[in-house]
Amino acid sequence: MLDPFQRFWQELPLLPGTTRPPLSEYEVECLLRDKVALIDGRSNQVVHTGGLVILTSHRIIWHCQTQSRAYHGHLSKVVDARKSHNIFKPSSRVHLYLQGPDQHRDKPATKIDFVHGGRDEFLAQVKTLLQMRDWEKVPASSPTSGSGRSPAVAAATASAVPVFTARKAGVGGIIRRQENTRAAQDKLATEAFGDLQALMGRAREVVSVIERYATVLASKAEGEGAGSGNGGGQEDAELQGLLIDMGIFNPVTRVSAGSLYHKELARQLAQFLTGGGKSTRATGGMLAARGGMMTLHDTYCLFNRARGTALISPEDLLDACEELESLQLGMRLHRFPSGVSVVQAQEFSEQQVSGQLRALAEAEADGSLTALDVATHLQVSLTLAQEFLRAAEARGQLCRDESAQGMLFWPNRFPDFIESTHQGANDAH
User: Fold this and answer.
1) Per-residue model confidence as pLDDT tens digits over 323-375
2) Does the pTM exceed 0.90?
3) What is the CA 228 to chain-centroid distance, rounded?
4) Which residue in 299, 395, 379 sits closest to 341, CA to CA?
5) Cα–Cα distance between 111 and 405 in angstroms, integer?
6) Angle 350-363/371-378 helices, nearest 10 degrees?
7) What is the C-alpha to C-alpha distance for residues 295 and 179, in angstroms, rounded to an integer?
8) Rounded CA gap, 317 and 324, in Å?
9) Binning pLDDT at 50, 70 and 90, where does residue 140 land?
10) 374: Cβ–Cβ under 8 A, 6 or more apart, which residues?
11) Directed axis angle between helix 261-274 and helix 296-307, to 10°?
Protein backbone atom coordinates (compact mmCIF):
# COMPACT_ATOMS: atom_id res chain seq x y z
CA MET A 1 0.00 0.00 0.00
CA LEU A 2 1.33 3.41 -0.96
CA ASP A 3 2.15 5.86 1.80
CA PRO A 4 0.53 9.34 1.70
CA PHE A 5 3.58 10.92 0.02
CA GLN A 6 3.61 8.45 -2.88
CA ARG A 7 -0.18 8.54 -3.12
CA PHE A 8 -0.13 12.31 -3.61
CA TRP A 9 2.93 12.75 -5.85
CA GLN A 10 2.25 10.86 -9.08
CA GLU A 11 4.81 10.72 -11.90
CA LEU A 12 3.89 13.04 -14.75
CA PRO A 13 5.02 11.97 -18.26
CA LEU A 14 6.62 14.73 -20.32
CA LEU A 15 5.84 15.11 -24.00
CA PRO A 16 8.87 14.71 -26.34
CA GLY A 17 10.45 18.04 -27.27
CA THR A 18 8.67 20.03 -24.54
CA THR A 19 10.34 21.95 -21.73
CA ARG A 20 7.29 22.12 -19.48
CA PRO A 21 4.71 19.64 -18.18
CA PRO A 22 1.46 19.97 -20.18
CA LEU A 23 -1.59 21.59 -18.62
CA SER A 24 -5.09 20.22 -18.99
CA GLU A 25 -7.97 22.13 -20.54
CA TYR A 26 -9.13 25.13 -18.45
CA GLU A 27 -6.09 24.75 -16.16
CA VAL A 28 -4.27 28.00 -15.45
CA GLU A 29 -0.79 28.65 -14.05
CA CYS A 30 -1.01 30.68 -10.85
CA LEU A 31 2.48 30.72 -9.33
CA LEU A 32 6.01 29.45 -9.98
CA ARG A 33 9.00 29.07 -7.67
CA ASP A 34 12.46 27.68 -8.36
CA LYS A 35 14.83 25.48 -6.30
CA VAL A 36 12.08 23.73 -4.34
CA ALA A 37 12.44 20.41 -2.49
CA LEU A 38 9.81 17.73 -1.76
CA ILE A 39 9.97 16.05 1.65
CA ASP A 40 8.21 12.97 2.95
CA GLY A 41 6.04 14.13 5.85
CA ARG A 42 6.34 10.89 7.83
CA SER A 43 10.07 10.21 7.59
CA ASN A 44 11.09 13.86 7.14
CA GLN A 45 13.47 12.73 4.39
CA VAL A 46 14.17 14.87 1.32
CA VAL A 47 12.92 12.88 -1.67
CA HIS A 48 13.31 15.36 -4.55
CA THR A 49 15.34 18.56 -4.56
CA GLY A 50 16.30 21.45 -6.82
CA GLY A 51 13.13 21.50 -8.92
CA LEU A 52 10.60 24.03 -10.17
CA VAL A 53 7.20 24.02 -8.49
CA ILE A 54 4.24 25.13 -10.63
CA LEU A 55 1.00 25.87 -8.82
CA THR A 56 -2.01 25.76 -11.12
CA SER A 57 -5.72 26.11 -10.56
CA HIS A 58 -5.98 22.30 -10.32
CA ARG A 59 -2.60 20.83 -9.33
CA ILE A 60 0.81 21.26 -7.75
CA ILE A 61 3.52 20.24 -10.24
CA TRP A 62 7.17 19.63 -9.37
CA HIS A 63 9.50 19.63 -12.39
CA CYS A 64 13.24 18.93 -12.51
CA GLN A 65 14.41 20.50 -15.77
CA THR A 66 17.94 19.07 -15.64
CA GLN A 67 16.74 15.46 -15.33
CA SER A 68 13.53 15.85 -17.38
CA ARG A 69 11.21 14.35 -14.78
CA ALA A 70 8.10 15.66 -13.15
CA TYR A 71 5.56 14.77 -10.44
CA HIS A 72 2.15 16.22 -9.74
CA GLY A 73 -0.53 16.12 -7.07
CA HIS A 74 -4.14 17.21 -7.47
CA LEU A 75 -5.46 19.90 -5.13
CA SER A 76 -8.69 17.95 -4.66
CA LYS A 77 -6.72 15.57 -2.41
CA VAL A 78 -5.53 18.40 -0.14
CA VAL A 79 -7.55 19.06 3.00
CA ASP A 80 -5.40 21.78 4.53
CA ALA A 81 -2.10 23.62 4.03
CA ARG A 82 -0.14 25.17 6.89
CA LYS A 83 3.15 26.86 7.65
CA SER A 84 5.90 24.90 9.31
CA HIS A 85 6.83 26.24 12.75
CA ASN A 86 10.31 25.74 14.13
CA ILE A 87 11.27 27.30 17.48
CA PHE A 88 15.01 27.03 16.76
CA LYS A 89 15.27 28.56 13.28
CA PRO A 90 13.03 30.19 10.64
CA SER A 91 11.28 27.60 8.50
CA SER A 92 10.68 27.79 4.75
CA ARG A 93 8.33 24.80 4.49
CA VAL A 94 4.66 24.31 3.72
CA HIS A 95 2.84 21.27 5.16
CA LEU A 96 0.11 19.59 3.11
CA TYR A 97 -2.57 17.45 4.78
CA LEU A 98 -4.46 14.99 2.59
CA GLN A 99 -7.71 13.11 2.63
CA GLY A 100 -7.76 9.46 3.72
CA PRO A 101 -7.74 7.27 6.83
CA ASP A 102 -3.92 7.04 6.90
CA GLN A 103 -3.53 10.81 7.21
CA HIS A 104 -2.51 11.73 10.78
CA ARG A 105 -4.14 14.85 12.12
CA ASP A 106 -0.89 16.43 13.31
CA LYS A 107 1.54 14.91 10.81
CA PRO A 108 1.55 16.21 7.21
CA ALA A 109 1.67 13.81 4.28
CA THR A 110 4.21 15.91 2.41
CA LYS A 111 6.28 19.01 2.93
CA ILE A 112 7.40 21.51 0.32
CA ASP A 113 10.61 23.38 1.14
CA PHE A 114 11.12 26.81 -0.48
CA VAL A 115 14.86 27.18 -0.02
CA HIS A 116 15.07 30.52 -1.83
CA GLY A 117 11.86 32.04 -0.48
CA GLY A 118 8.31 32.30 -1.71
CA ARG A 119 6.66 30.14 0.95
CA ASP A 120 4.09 32.71 2.11
CA GLU A 121 2.96 33.61 -1.42
CA PHE A 122 2.60 29.91 -2.27
CA LEU A 123 0.62 29.15 0.88
CA ALA A 124 -1.75 32.09 0.38
CA GLN A 125 -2.41 31.05 -3.23
CA VAL A 126 -3.02 27.41 -2.25
CA LYS A 127 -5.59 28.43 0.37
CA THR A 128 -7.36 30.63 -2.21
CA LEU A 129 -7.47 27.79 -4.75
CA LEU A 130 -8.78 25.34 -2.14
CA GLN A 131 -11.66 27.73 -1.47
CA MET A 132 -12.42 28.32 -5.16
CA ARG A 133 -12.21 24.61 -6.15
CA ASP A 134 -12.06 25.31 -9.88
CA TRP A 135 -11.61 21.62 -10.72
CA GLU A 136 -15.21 21.00 -9.67
CA LYS A 137 -16.48 23.60 -12.14
CA VAL A 138 -14.88 22.01 -15.22
CA PRO A 139 -17.29 19.87 -17.27
CA ALA A 140 -16.40 16.33 -18.24
CA SER A 141 -14.06 16.45 -21.22
CA SER A 142 -15.31 14.92 -24.43
CA PRO A 143 -13.00 13.48 -27.11
CA THR A 144 -12.46 15.32 -30.34
CA SER A 145 -15.16 14.39 -32.80
CA GLY A 146 -14.56 13.13 -36.29
CA SER A 147 -15.31 16.56 -37.70
CA GLY A 148 -12.06 17.86 -36.17
CA ARG A 149 -13.70 20.16 -33.66
CA SER A 150 -11.89 20.95 -30.44
CA PRO A 151 -13.16 19.35 -27.16
CA ALA A 152 -14.38 22.75 -25.91
CA VAL A 153 -16.48 23.33 -29.03
CA ALA A 154 -17.74 19.73 -29.09
CA ALA A 155 -18.81 19.95 -25.44
CA ALA A 156 -20.54 23.28 -26.04
CA THR A 157 -22.36 21.80 -29.02
CA ALA A 158 -23.39 18.61 -27.23
CA SER A 159 -24.73 20.51 -24.22
CA ALA A 160 -27.67 21.83 -26.19
CA VAL A 161 -29.81 19.03 -27.69
CA PRO A 162 -32.03 20.50 -30.42
CA VAL A 163 -35.76 19.90 -29.92
CA PHE A 164 -38.02 21.00 -32.75
CA THR A 165 -40.97 23.23 -31.97
CA ALA A 166 -43.05 25.50 -34.19
CA ARG A 167 -41.67 28.52 -32.31
CA LYS A 168 -38.13 27.64 -33.39
CA ALA A 169 -38.98 27.25 -37.06
CA GLY A 170 -38.42 29.80 -39.82
CA VAL A 171 -36.63 33.14 -39.83
CA GLY A 172 -38.29 34.20 -36.56
CA GLY A 173 -36.89 31.15 -34.78
CA ILE A 174 -33.37 31.89 -36.06
CA ILE A 175 -33.60 35.49 -34.86
CA ARG A 176 -34.86 34.38 -31.42
CA ARG A 177 -31.97 31.90 -31.07
CA GLN A 178 -29.44 34.59 -31.96
CA GLU A 179 -31.02 36.96 -29.44
CA ASN A 180 -30.88 34.29 -26.72
CA THR A 181 -27.22 33.61 -27.50
CA ARG A 182 -26.36 37.32 -27.34
CA ALA A 183 -28.29 37.70 -24.08
CA ALA A 184 -26.39 34.77 -22.53
CA GLN A 185 -23.04 36.19 -23.59
CA ASP A 186 -23.98 39.66 -22.33
CA LYS A 187 -24.93 38.15 -18.97
CA LEU A 188 -21.62 36.29 -18.85
CA ALA A 189 -19.64 39.46 -19.59
CA THR A 190 -21.59 41.46 -17.00
CA GLU A 191 -21.03 38.88 -14.27
CA ALA A 192 -17.40 38.22 -15.20
CA PHE A 193 -16.23 41.81 -15.34
CA GLY A 194 -18.37 43.11 -12.49
CA ASP A 195 -15.65 42.62 -9.88
CA LEU A 196 -12.46 40.61 -9.46
CA GLN A 197 -14.03 37.71 -7.56
CA ALA A 198 -16.75 37.29 -10.17
CA LEU A 199 -14.10 37.35 -12.89
CA MET A 200 -12.12 34.59 -11.19
CA GLY A 201 -15.26 32.55 -10.70
CA ARG A 202 -16.23 32.91 -14.36
CA ALA A 203 -12.73 32.47 -15.79
CA ARG A 204 -13.56 29.12 -17.36
CA GLU A 205 -16.60 30.49 -19.24
CA VAL A 206 -14.64 33.52 -20.44
CA VAL A 207 -11.85 31.31 -21.77
CA SER A 208 -14.47 29.13 -23.49
CA VAL A 209 -15.91 32.17 -25.30
CA ILE A 210 -12.40 33.20 -26.42
CA GLU A 211 -11.67 29.69 -27.69
CA ARG A 212 -14.95 29.59 -29.61
CA TYR A 213 -14.12 32.83 -31.42
CA ALA A 214 -10.60 31.56 -32.10
CA THR A 215 -12.02 28.32 -33.53
CA VAL A 216 -14.35 30.29 -35.82
CA LEU A 217 -11.46 32.31 -37.25
CA ALA A 218 -9.21 29.27 -37.62
CA SER A 219 -11.87 27.21 -39.41
CA LYS A 220 -12.67 30.09 -41.77
CA ALA A 221 -8.99 30.56 -42.59
CA GLU A 222 -8.53 26.85 -43.31
CA GLY A 223 -11.78 26.44 -45.29
CA GLU A 224 -11.64 29.57 -47.40
CA GLY A 225 -7.94 30.35 -47.76
CA ALA A 226 -6.43 33.73 -48.46
CA GLY A 227 -8.05 35.97 -51.03
CA SER A 228 -11.26 34.01 -51.37
CA GLY A 229 -13.14 37.26 -51.95
CA ASN A 230 -16.29 36.30 -50.10
CA GLY A 231 -16.73 39.69 -48.46
CA GLY A 232 -16.05 38.42 -44.94
CA GLY A 233 -12.87 40.46 -44.43
CA GLN A 234 -14.56 43.12 -42.30
CA GLU A 235 -16.16 40.49 -40.04
CA ASP A 236 -12.80 38.69 -39.64
CA ALA A 237 -11.10 41.99 -38.76
CA GLU A 238 -13.74 42.68 -36.10
CA LEU A 239 -13.31 39.20 -34.59
CA GLN A 240 -9.52 39.56 -34.57
CA GLY A 241 -9.87 42.94 -32.88
CA LEU A 242 -12.10 41.32 -30.26
CA LEU A 243 -9.51 38.60 -29.60
CA ILE A 244 -6.73 41.16 -29.20
CA ASP A 245 -8.91 43.22 -26.85
CA MET A 246 -9.47 40.09 -24.73
CA GLY A 247 -5.70 40.05 -24.23
CA ILE A 248 -3.76 37.63 -22.04
CA PHE A 249 -6.08 36.24 -19.37
CA ASN A 250 -3.25 35.08 -17.07
CA PRO A 251 -0.28 37.51 -17.40
CA VAL A 252 3.00 36.60 -15.74
CA THR A 253 3.89 38.90 -12.82
CA ARG A 254 6.76 39.19 -10.35
CA VAL A 255 4.49 37.83 -7.63
CA SER A 256 3.49 34.72 -9.60
CA ALA A 257 6.91 33.94 -11.12
CA GLY A 258 9.34 35.16 -8.44
CA SER A 259 12.99 34.74 -9.46
CA LEU A 260 11.87 33.18 -12.77
CA TYR A 261 10.06 36.36 -13.77
CA HIS A 262 12.03 37.27 -16.89
CA LYS A 263 12.21 33.66 -18.14
CA GLU A 264 8.46 33.19 -17.71
CA LEU A 265 7.84 36.59 -19.28
CA ALA A 266 9.91 35.48 -22.28
CA ARG A 267 7.83 32.29 -22.60
CA GLN A 268 4.58 34.23 -22.52
CA LEU A 269 5.92 36.80 -24.99
CA ALA A 270 6.90 34.04 -27.43
CA GLN A 271 3.48 32.43 -27.02
CA PHE A 272 1.82 35.79 -27.66
CA LEU A 273 3.88 36.61 -30.79
CA THR A 274 3.56 33.16 -32.38
CA GLY A 275 -0.16 32.75 -31.75
CA GLY A 276 0.30 29.95 -29.21
CA GLY A 277 -2.03 31.55 -26.67
CA LYS A 278 -5.78 30.96 -26.56
CA SER A 279 -6.53 34.59 -27.47
CA THR A 280 -4.06 34.85 -30.37
CA ARG A 281 -4.20 31.38 -31.93
CA ALA A 282 -6.57 32.37 -34.72
CA THR A 283 -4.52 35.37 -35.86
CA GLY A 284 -1.75 33.08 -37.13
CA GLY A 285 0.86 34.86 -35.04
CA MET A 286 1.76 38.53 -34.98
CA LEU A 287 5.41 37.86 -35.73
CA ALA A 288 4.66 35.79 -38.84
CA ALA A 289 2.13 38.38 -40.07
CA ARG A 290 4.88 41.02 -39.93
CA GLY A 291 7.43 39.10 -41.92
CA GLY A 292 9.17 37.43 -38.99
CA MET A 293 10.49 40.61 -37.38
CA MET A 294 9.07 43.30 -35.07
CA THR A 295 10.70 46.31 -33.45
CA LEU A 296 10.82 46.40 -29.67
CA HIS A 297 8.62 49.52 -29.76
CA ASP A 298 5.81 47.68 -31.54
CA THR A 299 6.29 44.60 -29.37
CA TYR A 300 6.16 46.68 -26.18
CA CYS A 301 2.92 48.43 -27.17
CA LEU A 302 1.07 45.30 -28.36
CA PHE A 303 2.23 43.11 -25.46
CA ASN A 304 1.31 45.69 -22.83
CA ARG A 305 -2.07 46.21 -24.46
CA ALA A 306 -2.75 42.49 -24.22
CA ARG A 307 -1.64 42.38 -20.56
CA GLY A 308 -4.26 44.95 -19.53
CA THR A 309 -3.43 46.47 -16.15
CA ALA A 310 -0.41 44.18 -15.54
CA LEU A 311 1.94 46.48 -17.45
CA ILE A 312 5.66 45.82 -17.75
CA SER A 313 8.54 48.30 -18.06
CA PRO A 314 10.77 48.63 -21.15
CA GLU A 315 13.66 47.20 -19.10
CA ASP A 316 11.63 44.09 -18.25
CA LEU A 317 10.76 43.57 -21.91
CA LEU A 318 14.42 43.91 -22.92
CA ASP A 319 15.51 41.43 -20.24
CA ALA A 320 12.82 38.98 -21.37
CA CYS A 321 13.86 39.31 -25.03
CA GLU A 322 17.45 38.51 -24.11
CA GLU A 323 16.21 35.17 -22.71
CA LEU A 324 14.36 34.14 -25.89
CA GLU A 325 17.27 32.47 -27.70
CA SER A 326 18.66 30.62 -24.67
CA LEU A 327 15.18 29.18 -23.93
CA GLN A 328 14.89 27.98 -27.56
CA LEU A 329 11.53 29.63 -28.12
CA GLY A 330 11.90 30.04 -31.89
CA MET A 331 12.93 33.70 -31.84
CA ARG A 332 15.75 35.94 -30.66
CA LEU A 333 16.69 39.53 -29.94
CA HIS A 334 18.63 41.10 -32.84
CA ARG A 335 20.39 44.45 -32.94
CA PHE A 336 21.15 46.22 -36.20
CA PRO A 337 24.39 48.21 -36.58
CA SER A 338 22.32 51.40 -36.36
CA GLY A 339 21.22 50.44 -32.83
CA VAL A 340 17.64 49.42 -33.67
CA SER A 341 16.60 46.33 -31.67
CA VAL A 342 14.04 43.84 -32.97
CA VAL A 343 12.47 40.51 -32.09
CA GLN A 344 13.40 38.20 -34.95
CA ALA A 345 12.08 34.75 -35.81
CA GLN A 346 14.76 32.06 -35.72
CA GLU A 347 14.21 31.14 -39.37
CA PHE A 348 14.35 34.76 -40.59
CA SER A 349 16.92 35.25 -43.40
CA GLU A 350 18.36 38.69 -44.21
CA GLN A 351 19.81 37.25 -47.43
CA GLN A 352 16.36 36.20 -48.61
CA VAL A 353 14.89 39.63 -47.82
CA SER A 354 17.79 41.34 -49.63
CA GLY A 355 17.11 39.28 -52.74
CA GLN A 356 13.41 40.06 -52.45
CA LEU A 357 14.15 43.81 -52.31
CA ARG A 358 16.36 43.62 -55.41
CA ALA A 359 13.59 41.85 -57.34
CA LEU A 360 11.13 44.46 -56.06
CA ALA A 361 13.36 47.30 -57.27
CA GLU A 362 13.75 45.74 -60.71
CA ALA A 363 9.97 45.41 -60.97
CA GLU A 364 9.36 49.11 -60.22
CA ALA A 365 8.63 51.41 -63.15
CA ASP A 366 11.65 53.67 -62.53
CA GLY A 367 13.80 50.85 -61.14
CA SER A 368 14.28 52.40 -57.69
CA LEU A 369 13.00 51.86 -54.17
CA THR A 370 12.31 54.09 -51.20
CA ALA A 371 11.77 53.13 -47.57
CA LEU A 372 8.08 53.92 -48.00
CA ASP A 373 7.85 51.49 -50.96
CA VAL A 374 9.40 48.71 -48.89
CA ALA A 375 7.16 49.43 -45.89
CA THR A 376 4.08 49.27 -48.14
CA HIS A 377 5.03 46.06 -49.93
CA LEU A 378 6.33 44.11 -46.91
CA GLN A 379 3.79 45.51 -44.40
CA VAL A 380 6.50 46.62 -41.96
CA SER A 381 7.27 49.89 -40.20
CA LEU A 382 9.45 52.57 -41.82
CA THR A 383 12.18 51.86 -39.30
CA LEU A 384 12.40 48.23 -40.35
CA ALA A 385 12.13 49.16 -44.03
CA GLN A 386 15.21 51.38 -43.68
CA GLU A 387 17.11 48.60 -41.93
CA PHE A 388 16.18 46.12 -44.66
CA LEU A 389 17.46 48.52 -47.33
CA ARG A 390 20.75 49.06 -45.47
CA ALA A 391 21.19 45.29 -45.07
CA ALA A 392 20.56 44.76 -48.80
CA GLU A 393 23.09 47.49 -49.57
CA ALA A 394 25.69 45.84 -47.29
CA ARG A 395 25.15 42.53 -49.11
CA GLY A 396 25.71 44.16 -52.49
CA GLN A 397 22.14 43.74 -53.75
CA LEU A 398 21.27 47.45 -53.80
CA CYS A 399 23.13 50.71 -54.00
CA ARG A 400 21.94 54.10 -52.79
CA ASP A 401 21.53 57.44 -54.52
CA GLU A 402 21.28 60.48 -52.23
CA SER A 403 19.92 63.63 -53.84
CA ALA A 404 17.68 66.58 -53.14
CA GLN A 405 14.70 64.32 -53.82
CA GLY A 406 15.71 62.01 -50.99
CA MET A 407 17.39 58.62 -50.77
CA LEU A 408 16.69 56.09 -53.50
CA PHE A 409 17.95 52.52 -53.73
CA TRP A 410 18.70 50.93 -57.09
CA PRO A 411 19.65 47.39 -58.10
CA ASN A 412 23.45 47.11 -57.87
CA ARG A 413 24.60 46.57 -61.46
CA PHE A 414 28.27 47.40 -60.87
CA PRO A 415 29.36 43.72 -60.53
CA ASP A 416 27.73 42.92 -63.89
CA PHE A 417 29.35 46.00 -65.47
CA ILE A 418 32.80 45.11 -64.14
CA GLU A 419 32.43 41.51 -65.29
CA SER A 420 31.33 42.60 -68.79
CA THR A 421 34.27 45.06 -68.97
CA HIS A 422 36.76 42.34 -68.10
CA GLN A 423 35.15 40.00 -70.62
CA GLY A 424 35.40 42.67 -73.33
CA ALA A 425 39.08 43.29 -72.54
CA ASN A 426 39.81 39.54 -72.72
CA ASP A 427 38.02 39.29 -76.07
CA ALA A 428 40.07 42.24 -77.40
CA HIS A 429 43.31 40.44 -76.55
Assistant:
1) 999 998 889 999 988 889 999 998 888 888 888 899 998 888 888 889 999 99
2) no
3) 29
4) 299
5) 73
6) 110
7) 43
8) 11
9) very low
10) 357, 360, 380, 385, 388, 389
11) 100
